[in-house]
Amino acid sequence: MKFRALAAAALLLTLASVGHGADPETQDVEVVLAGVDGSDLNKQLLERREKINHLSDQEKLLFSAASKKAMDDPDVKTALAARNKAAQEFQITLQESMLKSYPTLALIFEKMRSGAGGRP
What we know:
It contains 6 helices and no strands. By secondary structure, the protein is mostly helical. The chain has helices at 2-15, 27-37, 39-53, 57-70, 74-101, 105-115. The chain starts with a helix and ends in a 5-residue tail after the last helix. α1 crosses α3 and α1 (2-15) packs across α5.
């Protein structure tokens, strides 16, 4: 249970930037991808941020300090590494499946890699 919560939190942080500053021409694509890349998790992250914003300054400081300290916990580090590996495996599997359906995406993936730091 603790692993799932930590993995979900880490994934939420990763997905927090999805859809921000969207280009109107690509907005439809982002809406479609939202279901693929964790829109439910993004919603949970936004709800969590809203709840944190309602805390007092002292509670926010305590929460922040506890979060930072938790990141030093070997179990948390292991969970984060597992989450990162699972996310990477998911991306690879997703891209392979997309390529099976639409082989011409290979050129688009390559274009994205060259312009986006090596990752589509």
